[in-house]
Design a protein that fits this description.
single chain; mainly alpha; Ferritin; 7 helices
């Protein structure tokens, strides 16, 4: 594979991981409804959706087509973990556990991507997202065990790091790295 193809492959792996986590977050938001924890989950959802959008732009900038959804294995595992909810009704701890595991999977994907050969601007993006995902994962596990997390609504917009969109790359630049 060429360098650009490797970059697209790694970015699509991150898109797939983010999509899996978004799927779990969507399900959890439905379970929690008007519970205050739903607002925190919506905050995580917005951050991950923003990262996925930026990753899709980067894949397109590298001449590829972004993945559209989570992997089949991720979707199947998420569905299997929710079977007890159908039998016994939703359990807050179990629901948060599913989301926390999905966040752990996303964290692992970012960790793996951080060791790959990526252009500097993408490496910086991956590093920022990795930090966010680590914090989100810790918060989700804390919530799962009944701990409190600072509500997302109390954070000022300046305190939340939003990844900057990745500018499209010219073909000459991509070929220079190969």
């Amino acid at each position: 594979m060429t360098h650009a193809a490797n970059v697209r492959y790694e970015l699509n792996r991150l898109i797939s991981a983010c999509s899996g986590e978004l799927h779990a977050l969507d399900a959890a938001i439905r379970v929690f409804g008007s519970d205050p924890r739903a607002e925190q989950l919506k905050y995580y959802h917005r951050r991950r959706a923003s990262a996925r959008t930026d990753l899709c732009a980067a894949v397109i900038g590298h001449g590829g087509a972004p993945k559209r959804s989570a992997s089949l294995g991720s979707r199947l595992a998420g569905a299997l973990r929710l079977i007890p909810n159908f039998a016994a009704g939703p359990n807050d701890g179990d629901t948060l556990s599913v989301v926390a595991r999905a966040s752990d999977t996303t964290e692992l994907a970012y960790w793996k991507a951080s060791s790959k050969s990526l252009p500097d601007h993408l490496r910086a993006f991956v590093a920022r997202q990795y930090e966010e995902v680590q914090q989100d994962s810790r918060d989700l596990w804390r919530m799962r065990w009944g701990g409190s997390v600072t509500p997302a609504t109390s954070e000022s917009p300046a305190s939340t790091r939003r990844a900057q969109p990745v500018p499209p790359l010219s073909g000459d630049w991509m070929l220079a790295g190969t």
